[in-house]
Every structure is written in C-alpha cells, then in structure tokens.
Amino acid sequence: MTTKTERLQKIIANAGIASRRHAETLIATGHVKVNGQIETEMGIKIGPHDEVEVDGVPIGKEAKRYFLFYKPRGVISAVQDNKGRDVVTDYFKDITERLYPVGRLDYDTSGLLVMTNDGDLANHLMHPRYALEKKYVAKVQGVPNRPALAPLKTGVEVDGKMTAPAKVDIISTDKAKKTAIVSLTIHQGMNHQVKKMFKAVGFPVLKLSREAYGNLTLVGLQPGEHRPIKPQELQALRKLAGESENK
C-alpha cells in the first residue's frame, strides 16, 4: 500500500480520499481502521505492510479512475455539503470508486473539473510549481476595450498580492446591453481570482465558466455530463503536472 513509513493522515490525503485536514477529522471520528482496528491517533506512522481502511474500504485497493466533468452552476465542488446542496459526486452515482474533485470551482461557476481517486496526480495538478493553465470565459458588466484590460496581462492587485501575467481576449461585445464576453487564461489558483481580477479593472463578472484545464477542454460535453479521460490525454496531463509519463 505504501513503500515507506508515513503519517496516517498523509496516506489518506495522498490516496485522494480527503484533504489533510479532513483526513484528520475522519481519523478523530472513528472512520479509519489500521490492520482491522479503529485508529484515532493522529500522528501514527504507517508502514508498507499495514492495511488502512476508510469507511470499510481499503486504501490502494481501488482502481485509479480519471474523469473530465462539466460542473453546472449551482453545484458544490465537494463530496458532501452540510446544507444539503448538490455536490459534484452526485453526478457519479454509477461509479463505485470514491472520486474527488481536483481543486474547486465556485458554486455559481460552471466548467471543467478533473475528478479522480489518484491523490498523487491531484497533488501534482494543484502544485503551484507546475502552473497548469486554466482558461475561463466570463460575461462581464461593461464594454471593455483592449487598453482597459491590458493590466490583466501584466498583473493586478488581488487581496494585497499581484497576480501573474495572464492571457486575455475580447470574444464579443453587446453595446446595447452593456456587456461583453472575455476569455482569461491564468495559471494561479487564488480564491475567487478571476472574479477579483475583472473587478480590479472595473468589469464585474456576471457569469463565469472554466473552458479548459491544461490540455483538457469541454468539447462534446454538456453541463452535468462527464467522460473518462483518454489515455493519451492522461499521459499529457501527467507530463504537464510533472509526473512521469510512464507512471
């Protein structure tokens, strides 16, 4: 299951089952067994011959699954929600493996999410070092021209930090409704970053969708639909994320 001694919560997180913090909650509340016994000690070290189960399912026994999902608006990028709202895993009822979203999209943002149970790949995809490009298409209030959006190309201040240079393109404008459709490609993952970037240059976002993530796009999918990531797509995604192509 593991080739070296690691902390229990790290093993759970690396398996893609939960974040490190949520893994600690699972341990503390008795959801985790080690070698058949419930384990609530947080810092316990797990070796290569130890068996770990979460809610009765052994870690490392599931086949790795990779999906491209078109998240609709009004859906939470999580596996559960304490307010009873729809979550992304509601759309994978036919999949027996435990899937988790890589990163997140806001509740009112639609678009591309990678769903997997491969924790190592997920960690690489989200690591700032590899800077995967994410393309968003936004409907904004106002009719910007290229000079008005130029600061986005060099960086604007968001929450006291300067954003990295982005790619921006005006797709269409509607002068009668005073709106525009603009694409923005970034590689950072700051909280509500795209909305805050457009607000910083005076064009608040009315509607937002993520259209591409690394080499993946939404072509052929409708909101709420998903498909397996093809082997060649996965190979390219691993390369972008700094993983071995042969993994």
Unreliable stretches: none
Number of domains: 3
Name the quaternary structure: single chain
Radius of gyration: 20 Å
**Overall number of strands:** 17
Q: Assign an overall shape.
A: elongated
Keywords: Isomerase, Lyase, RNA-binding
Pfam families: PseudoU_synth_2, S4
Family: Belongs to the pseudouridine synthase RsuA family.
Protein name: Pseudouridine synthase
Detailed description of the structure:
The protein has 247 residues and is of the alpha+beta class. The chain folds into 3 domains: 6-58, RNA-binding S4 domain (Structural Genomics Hypothetical 15.5 Kd Protein In mrcA-pckA Intergenic Region, Chain A); 66-129 and 216-240, Pseudouridine synthase I, catalytic domain, N-terminal subdomain (Alpha-Beta Plaits, 2-Layer Sandwich); 134-213, Alpha-Beta Plaits (2-Layer Sandwich). It has 6 helices and 17 strands. The chain has helices spanning 8-14, 20-28, 119-126, 146-154, 193-200, 231-240; strands spanning 6-7, 32-34, 37-38, 45-46, 52-54, 57-58, 66-71, 100-101, 109-116, 134-141, 157-158, 161-162, 167-174, 179-186, 205-213, 216-217, 226-228. Strands 7, 8, 9, 10, 13, 14, 15, 16 and 17 form a 9-stranded mixed sheet that branches. Strands 3-2-5-6 form a 4-stranded antiparallel sheet. A two-stranded antiparallel ribbon has the order 1-4. Strand 11 and strand 12 (161-162) form a beta hairpin. Helix 1 (8-14) crosses helix 2 (20-28). It is elongated and about 65 Å long. It starts with 5 loop residues before the first strand and ends in a 7-residue tail after the last helix.
